[in-house]
Write a structure and sequence with these properties.
It contains six helices and 13 strands. The chain is an alpha+beta fold. The strands form three sheets. It has a seven-stranded mixed β-sheet with strand order 7-6-13-5-12-9-10. A four-stranded antiparallel β-sheet has the order 1-2-4-3, with helices on one face. It has a two-stranded antiparallel ribbon with strand order 8-11. The termini are far apart.
Length: 236
């Protein structure tokens, strides 16, 4: 332990820059490691996760990597006999890498805002103190970046939501939210891929399918892509 680290640990309220920048690493099962980035849910943090993924995927012992929202799952080909060394190497890579941009495409998604599928729009208005038209305007004016795919095939976690329309996820999920529903969950937004239970808040509907197993590639979105929501119709 360095003198700076020792001081940080012994002085209440003082955290050294090195410790503040350290990722959390958890062992998942016997051969997987989850690296969780410190700091905020923001684009610089995600760019560093992308850089870490690019570095780690070249390791000979790695079978698969799964980038998530400000985290990275690293799956080894076999159980390591020295897991502490694996963690140490991951921390070294984290300290070394700098953020990168992914060369993504721009995707425009036409949306019907309001209407029968926007069952949570009123709740978003109540929470934000904004009118339904203001919520729609702020959402449709956003420039979004796909951070990662997950939770369902092709579902994109989108960063770029205006903080004024932040909306916590539901404590009781909707039991049957339709595929194509445009939703807000915390500081993220997205388009539901499957019909079924969903804890995000519905504000509109998109006819465009974001996942089609018969399409190549089946997922419309990919990490690094830019997304714009176009207010094709507004039913308020």
């Amino acid at each position: 332990m360095t003198d700076m680290q020792a001081t940080a640990l012994s002085t209440p309220g003082l955290i050294s820059p090195a410790l503040a920048d350290a990722p959390k690493i958890s062992v998942i099962g016997t051969s997987a490691y989850l690296v969780e980035a410190p700091g905020d849910f923001d684009l610089p943090t995600q760019r560093r996760i992308w850089a870490l993924a690019k570095a780690v995927e070249t390791w000979s012992e790695v079978r698969e990597i799964v980038p998530g929202v400000t985290n990275l799952l690293v799956i080894l080909k076999q159980t390591s006999e020295e897991p502490d060394q694996v963690e140490a190497r991951l921390r070294q890579e984290w300290d070394r890498v700098r953020g990168i941009d992914l060369a993504g495409k721009t995707i425009e998604i036409p949306v019907t805002y309001g209407g029968e599928h926007a069952t949570d729009l009123a709740a978003v208005c109540d929470f934000s103190g904004l009118s339904d038209r203001e919520v729609v305007r702020l959402h449709s004016e956003g420039n979004y970046t796909v951070f990662a795919l997950g939770s369902a095939p092709g579902f994109g976690y989108l960063h770029g939501l205006d903080a004024r329309i932040y909306m916590p996820r539901k404590t009781v999920p909707s039991l049957r939210m339709l595929k194509g529903t445009v939703t807000i969950g915390g500081m993220q937004t997205g388009v539901s891929v499957l019909t079924g239970p969903n804890g995000w808040n519905s504000i509109g509907f998109a006819e465009l399918s974001v996942f089609d197993p018969a399409r190549t590639p089946p997922a419309l979105l990919a990490p690094g892509d830019k997304v714009r929501f176009l207010p094709e119709r507004i039913e308020l």
